[in-house]
Amino acid sequence: MLGAPAAQLSAQTAPALRGTQVVIEVANLRNTDGVVRACMTRDSQRFPRCQNSAQGYRTVVPAGEATTLRFANVQPGTYAIALLHDENDNGKADRVLGMMPREGFGFSNDAPVNMGPPSFGDAAIQVGARELHQTIRMRYML
């Protein structure tokens, strides 16, 4: 588990520090091609890509199995979630003319998209001690 957040490692070794589970129901996935990439972060500066986020969680699931995603042992706090339907599984969000997304995307709180991804605040959710369920609707521009 190289690169895992320290809190995540502690949660696995000390039951008293165990976090909660965040369950994401994925709606409107247009096909089963490729994978769904999901990231959840507390770092507003790293949202929505979550790259190198020490305060985040990531998972990649085959699109055919992506109706429900789970993040386990999540520590309480404010997070934002971003999903990408990477239909060609090339590890990036493909765009048309460098701007318009070619592949599907979605955000926690069904946060609005206006000329770019939503702000961290618009997508922010609170994770506490109880299991949290969030439905994220995939959107496709093309």
Summarize it.
The protein has 142 residues and is mostly beta strands. It has a single domain, classed as Immunoglobulins (Immunoglobulin-like, Sandwich), CATH 2.60.40.
CATH superfamily: Immunoglobulins
**SSE string:** HEEEEEEEEHEE
In CATH's first tier, which class applies? Mainly Beta
Give the beta-strand count. 10
**Which CATH-level-2 architecture?**
Sandwich
| Share of residues in helices | under 10%
Based on secondary structure, the structural category is: mainly beta
Instruction: Tell me the number of helical segments per DSSP (H or I, 4 or more residues long).
Output: 2
- Give me the CATH fold name: Immunoglobulin-like
The low-confidence parts are: 1-16
Pfam families: DUF2141
Organism: Erythrobacter westpacificensis
InterPro entries: DUF2141
Protein name: DUF2141 domain-containing protein
List the helices and strands and how they pair.
Elements: H1 6-13, E1 20-27, E2 35-41, E3 56-62, E4 68-74, E5 77-86, E6 95-96, E7 100-101, E8 104-107, H2 120-123, E9 124-127, E10 132-137
Parallel strand pairs: 1-10
Antiparallel strand pairs: 1-4, 2-3, 2-5, 5-8, 5-9, 6-7
Describe the structure.
- By secondary structure, the chain is mainly beta.
- The protein has a single domain, classed as Immunoglobulins (Immunoglobulin-like, Sandwich), CATH 2.60.40.10.
- Helix content is 8%, strand content 40%.
- The protein has two helices and ten strands; from the N terminus they run αββββββββαββ.
- It has helices at 6-13, 120-123; strands at 20-27, 35-41, 56-62, 68-74, 77-86, 95-96, 100-101, 104-107, 124-127, 132-137.
- The strands form three sheets. Strands 2, 3, 5, 8 and 9 form a five-stranded antiparallel beta sheet that branches.
